[in-house]
Amino acid sequence: MRQIAGDARSNRVLQALLAWYLLVWAVMAIAPLDRRDWFLENILAMALVALLVATYRRFSFSTLSYGLITVFLTLHTVAAHYTYSEVPAGSWLKEILALERNHFDRVTHFVFGLLMTYPIREVLVRAAHLRGLWSYVLPVSALLALSSLFEIVEAWVAQIVSPELGAAYLGTQGDIWDAQKDMMAALCGAILCMILTAALRHASTQTGGHQ
Questions:
Q1: CB 3.0–4.6 Å: which of 15, 28, 31, 194 could bond 136 by disulfide?
Q2: Which residues pair with 3 in a beta bridge?
Q3: 172 φ/ψ angles, rounded to the nearest 5 degrees
Q4: Alpha-carbon gap, residue 64 to 13, rounded angstroms
Q5: CB count, 10 Å around CB of 190?
Q6: Which whole-number Å values give the CA distances from 4 to 1, 17, 47, 187, in the listed order?
Q7: Cα–Cα distance, 136 to 195 (Å, whole number)
Q8: Residue 45 to residue 55: CA distance in whole angstroms
Q9: How many beta carbons lie within 10 A of that of residue 146, not counting itself?
Q10: What is the pLDDT of residue 207?
Q11: How far apart (Å, rounded) are the C-alpha atoms in residues 38 and 29?
C-alpha cells in the first residue's frame, strides 16, 4: 500500500483533505439546529481528528484511508448540523419511500462500516502483521467492537453532559432497538468493505499489480 510520505506540511493531498474538513466543519457550525446537540455530536469527531494529527509522524495512513476518513467525517459533520433525525436528505427519503422514520442515522452507520473498516485493516496489517483471511475478518470484528463502544460512549455522554438531550443526541426516534440496528448497519458496511477490498486486491494481483 502506498503510504503518505514526508512531513504533513509538504503533503498537498493531506492538506487539501484537512482544509476541506475544516471548511465543512466551520460552515456547519453556523446556526446548527440544536447547538447543544451539535456540541455533543462533535466531541468524538474532533477527538478523532486530534488523534490523527497527533499520531501522524508515528503512524501515517495511506492516502486512500485519509480520504475515506474525511468522507465519513464530512457526512457526520453535516448530520451534526441538523441532528441525525432531522437531516433533510433523510426526510426526503422518508417521504419518497414512505418510511416510518428518518433513516439518515442508519445510512451513516452503514457508511461508517463501509469507509472506516479499510483504515482499521491498514492499522492491523501494519501493526499486527495480519495476513490472509485474518486480515479481512479481524477488521470487521474490530469495526463492530468500535461501533458498540461508540453506542456506549454516546449513552454516557448524553447522560453526563446533557440528559435532556438524550433522545435527540442518540437519534433513537422512539425505536428501542435503535442501537442494535445501528450496529447491524455498521457490520453490513464493514463486511461489504472487506469483500470489495479482497476483490480489488485479487484483481490487482491477477494483473501483476500490488496493494
A1: 194
A2: 62
A3: -70, -30
A4: 10
A5: 29
A6: 10, 13, 22, 28
A7: 8
A8: 16
A9: 17
A10: 76
A11: 8
Q: What pLDDT is attached to residue 4?
A: 41
Q: Which residue has the cell 442515522?
A: 105
Cα–Cα distance measured from residue 205 to residue 81, given in angstroms and rounded to the nearest whole number: 43
Beta bridge partner(s), residue 62: 3
Alpha-carbon distance 38 to 65, whole Å? 26
Q: What type of residue sits at position 57?
A: R
Q: What is the total residue count of the chain? A: 211
SS3 135: helix
Proportion of the chain above pLDDT 90, given as a percent: 51
CB contact set of 122 (below 8 Å; sequence gap of 6+): 1, 61, 62, 65
pTM of the full predicted structure? Answer: 0.84
Q: Domain coordinates of the chain in residue numbers?
A: 8-206
- Are 140 and 194 in contact by the 8 Å Cβ rule? The answer is yes
Q: Are 199 and 156 in contact (CB under 8 A)?
A: no
Distance, CA of 113 to CA of 94 (rounded, Å): 22
